[in-house]
Design brief:
Elements: H1 2-20, E1 23-28, E2 31-33, E3 46-48, E4 51-55, E5 58-71, E6 77-90, H2 98-103
Antiparallel strand pairs: 1-4, 2-3, 5-6
């Protein structure tokens, strides 16, 4: 039960950090011209949506064993080895994998 709570906490923190680490660059301006109508069409419509290149961060979630003090029933604590999540986030602009290298 305790391990599941740690894993869920790690995944939630990884997801929130992942949203902050995105590198977004606008690659094209957008243009929207809506058609005007009276009884007959007087102008053709033109829609050009903006384009974005989004490089998501690389997120590695692993576990490691750490010895921490865990309170026990009574007035004492004892050390116990638990598996805790370890999250490493590399922002998109700092990544050096092949995908990012091809776009530059």
């Amino acid at each position: 039960m305790r391990q599941t709570a740690f894993i869920l906490a790690g995944l939630v923190s990884a997801a929130s950090i992942g949203l902050v680490g995105c590198d977004v660059q606008k690659t094209q301006e957008g243009n929207v011209t809506v058609p005007k109508y009276e009884v007959s069409k007087t102008q053709e419509g033109d829609v050009t949506l903006p384009k974005y290149d989004v490089d998501a961060p690389k997120v590695d979630v692993t576990t490691e064993k750490k010895e921490v003090e865990v309170p026990k029933v009574g007035v004492y604590t004892e050390k116990e080895t638990l598996t805790i999540p370890k999250v490493e986030v590399t922002p998109a602009k700092d990544r050096d994998d092949d995908k990012v290298a091809e776009k530059k």
